[in-house]
Design brief:
There is one protein chain. With 229 residues, the chain is α+β, with helices and mostly antiparallel strands. The protein has one domain. It is built from 7 helices and 9 strands; from the N terminus they run ααααβββαβαβββαββ. The chain has a 6-stranded antiparallel beta sheet, covered by helices on one side. Strands 5-8-9 form a 3-stranded antiparallel beta sheet.
């Protein structure tokens, strides 16, 4: 019975993660982990995207999963927009605050206001990146590597795109500089380096983080999870 449970619980956990749908940025780090795949795929933006609704943009940077992840949620406000910038915490238990025990996993968040010109610049930058080299159907987003994803609803039209180091220089994507100009988290940006070799980097379940990968399906949306380790 114990042996069966050992395999059953991880299987049920994967099913639970896959079933959870994001409703947008999540402050609770535990809930965020269960909704991450949905958030990354922009499910909430896609399902609410309709003519007459708010224009929204989401960018997520994976600078190797357990080293740096940055998220940017931009929502139109009048002619401009509000940008929510986050750098997800890595959970250093040595710095836990007993009054806010989950704070170390939450990561810093800063909201800034984009004027009409800055918002237009960011949307135009996304257009240029979307029109260039990007991850195609069947490609993978690997947690142990570097990639950007973006989801957008503009005038009732939904778009999603992903970029990895296999297709392009992800540090030089046109939207990176405009995003970082409005990012006041004061956490240095971890630039992409050489991608890892092989299916995954050396993996030891006792000393390192598990890795996962998401595949881009025929609609251009990531599906998953596909867990390794």
């Amino acid at each position: 019975m114990i042996r069966q449970s050992r395999f059953l619980f991880p299987f049920l956990a994967v099913l639970a993660i896959a079933a959870c749908q994001s409703a947008g940025p999540e402050d609770n780090a535990i809930l965020r982990s269960f909704k991450w795949y949905s958030y990354l795929g922009g499910d909430d933006i896609r399902e609410t995207c309709a003519a007459g609704g708010l224009d929204r943009l989401r960018f997520v940077y994976n600078g190797i999963w357990h080293e740096q992840v940055r998220t940017y949620d931009i929502v139109a406000v009048g002619p401009g927009a509000r940008q929510e910038s986050r750098v997800l915490g890595q959970g250093n238990i040595a710095s836990i605050d007993l009054l806010d025990p989950f704070g170390v996993w939450r990561g810093p968040r800063v909201d800034t206001t984009l004027d009409a010109a800055a918002f237009a610049t960011l949307r135009a930058a996304f257009d240029r990146a979307h029109a260039g080299a990007r991850l195609k159907s069947g490609g993978y987003l690997r947690s142990d590597s570097y990639y950007w994803v973006a989801a957008e609803c503009r005038a009732g039209r939904y778009r999603f795109a992903a970029w990895t180091t296999d297709e392009t220089d992800v540090n030089a994507l046109s939207f990176v500089a405009p995003l970082l100009r409005q990012d006041l988290t004061e956490v240095p940006f971890r630039r992409a380096a050489n991608p890892p070799q092989g299916p995954f980097r050396d993996y030891d379940p006792m000393t390192t983080y598990p890795h996962f990968r998401l595949q881009i399906d025929e609609t251009g949306i990531p599906v998953g999870p596909r867990v390794r380790g």
